[in-house]
Amino acid sequence: MSQLTLRLINENLAIHSLTTNSTIPAEVFSASIFFIAKTFDEISIVLPQSIIIDSDEAELNWQALEVVGPLDFTMTGILSNISTVLANEKISIFAISTFDTDYILVKEEFMEAAIKALRKNQYLVI
In degrees rounded to 5, what are phi and psi of residue 82? Predict the structure, then answer.
């Protein structure tokens, strides 16, 4: 697989956890970027941490790398390869996939090391 381009999103993000019967706060929908996932056990919301919502738990100071797409659904190993590079550097990730692309969230304090490791592995990070 040819190496991909990753774009650093210039926004600090928060990852929120809510119970499954929670109402999604209205301010989420006006955010410049947001992700919502609901399972049988929880609701997760990722949005700029400048937007404060009432949640059961929040993880702050995440930044995102966007895999520049759109990516074809026949492409395989994208997240696997990126996560392996970062795992080898002991950098934890929170991954999000959309219809067109993938986002890899890394704690702000580890982003410089993540970018360095990705570039060392022939990823273009812009």
Answer: -65, -45
Per-residue pLDDT of the chain (126 residues), as tens digits, is 457 899 999 999 999 999 999 999 999 999 999 999 999 999 999 999 999 999 999 999 999 999 987 667 667 678 899 999 999 999 999 999 999 889 999 999 999 999 999 999 999 999
* Beta-bridge mates of residue 64: 9, 105
Domains, the chain, ordered by start: 5-125 (3.30.2130.10)
DSSP state of 21: T
Q: Which amino acid is at 64?
A: A
**How do beta strands 43-48 and 35-38 pair?**
antiparallel
Residues 25 and 5: their CA atoms lie apart, in Å, by 33
Contact indicator for 102, 4 with CB cutoff of 8 Å: no
